Amino acid sequence: MGLEEGRVRVGLTERLYYTDSYLREFRANVIEASDGGCRVYLDRTAFYPASGGQPFDTGTIGDAAVIEVADEGDRIAHITGAPITPGDVGCAIDWPRRFDHMQQHSGQHLLSAVLVELYGAATVGFHLGAESSAIDIGASLTDIQLAAAELRANEIVFENRPVSISFEDASAAGGLRKASEREGTLRIVNIEGLDRSACGGTHVCSTGEIGPVLIRKLERVHGNLRIEFLCGLRAVRRAHADYDALARIGRTFSCALDDAPALAAAQVQSLETAEKARRKAAIELAQVRGRELYEATAPDAAGLRVVVERVAAGVSEEEVRSRARGFTAQARACFIALFAGARPAALMAVSADAGVHAGNVLKAAVTCLGGRGGGSAQVAQGSIPAPEAGEELVSALQRTIGR
Ligand SMILES: [Zn+2]
């Protein structure tokens, strides 16, 4: 689809691929070689330039590798890895790469036509990538509908219908899947009894050559449905890679492939349950540790028990809070924790009878150091913007409780 809407241009480069997609070796005249001889213009070429979603061909011109082919309108530029001198030259395109592109592109026409035939869903975009291809449709389809489209596309592959190219005047060309706004001669790709599309791309000559058509990932993109698909050997290789991945999962669970999804889901569920239980136990343990810490801490002259914890990396805030709660659930207790980092943070918790308002004290201390924070009478937290001032914050908090 798309491409140059299939319009045939009369220009300096004769496009041999317009009439023969199977031409892999040809001779041509180098009529210009600029950029030190590495930007090459031929009088005729079978190299397809990047256009309309289909990538460019690679191959060789003389002994030089063709690394990119660009459509400049009337001319086609071949970017080579080594300089080319003007004159007659033998050229060859990388056939496996080109044929793969033909399979994907013809497969796209087929799939797009089937989606219109079955659901009236028009294709609004096409991209042929190195790994997979995708079409965007402006409709929403269910998995079941797409499975039916995949089946229908493969049936038409098995029917081995002819795919032909015709050149028709735009004013007389009827029955196109997508109306062309071009005037003059259109290049039209016909899948017998199914599809007529204006297109400048390279195509196989019968649907059988497309090989298997495999629909994979579906994605919502800008309000459209993006359908990833693969044809030919790409589909076979992908299916095999999928099998390998599934087989590894099956071996991990020591189960049959078909049982792997249910088993994986059950494992995730049980892991979530275990994680919840672990967190609950960790909180309970932290509270017990807080009480133990209280027992092990001697009261100061005023009868207040104070601990300062410099929290180690990897210890969760939830755990520290639980320890603080366990500590300050006892009489005359104060718990200060410092979380170091780019923005040091402090937690202050006090027992109801500590004679200190944690929120007020902490707010005053962090404000002095340019930070922010606050909280209730018993628990407060805050942070400061200076990474090196963490200890200063701790000292300020200790001073407010007479230490
Ligand atoms: Zn096309």
Describe this protein's structure:
The chain has 403 residues and is of the alpha+beta class. Helix content is 33%, strand content 29%. The chain contains 7 helices and 20 strands. The protein has a 6-stranded antiparallel beta barrel. Strands 16-17-18-20-19 form a 5-stranded mixed β-sheet, with helices on both faces. Strand 17 (333-339) and strand 18 form a beta hairpin. Helix 6 crosses helix 7. It is elongated and about 100 Å long. It starts with 13 loop residues before the first strand and ends with a helix. The structure holds zinc ion. Zinc ion is lined by residues 1, 3, 105, 109, 197, 199, 201.
Give the low-confidence spans.
1-11
- Choose one word for the global shape: elongated
Distance between the termini: 79 Å
Radius of gyration: 35 Å
Mean pLDDT, all residues: 93
Question: For the report, how would you describe the main beta sheet?
Answer: 6 strands, antiparallel, barrel
Strand order of the largest sheet: 2-3-7-6-5-8
The DSSP helix count reads 7
- Ions and ligands: zinc ion
* Strand residues, percent: 25-35%
What's the gist of this structure?
It contains 7 helices and 20 strands. It is of the alpha+beta class and 403 residues long.
Keywords:
403 residues, five-stranded mixed sheet, elongated, disordered N terminus, binds zinc ion
Task: Tell me the layout of helices and strands.
Layout: E1 14-15, E2 25-34, E3 39-42, E4 44-45, E5 59-61, E6 64-71, E7 76-80, E8 87-93, H1 95-119, E9 123-128, E10 133-137, H2 143-158, E11 163-169, E12 185-191, E13 195-198, E14 213-221, E15 224-231, H3 232-253, H4 260-296, E16 305-310, H5 317-328, E17 333-339, E18 345-350, H6 358-368, E19 372-375, E20 379-383, H7 390-400
Parallel strand pairs: 1-4, 16-17
Antiparallel strand pairs: 2-3, 2-8, 3-7, 5-6, 5-8, 6-7, 9-10, 10-15, 11-12, 12-13, 14-15, 17-18, 18-20, 19-20
Helix pairs in contact: 1-2, 4-5, 6-7
The site of zinc ion has 7 residues, from α1.
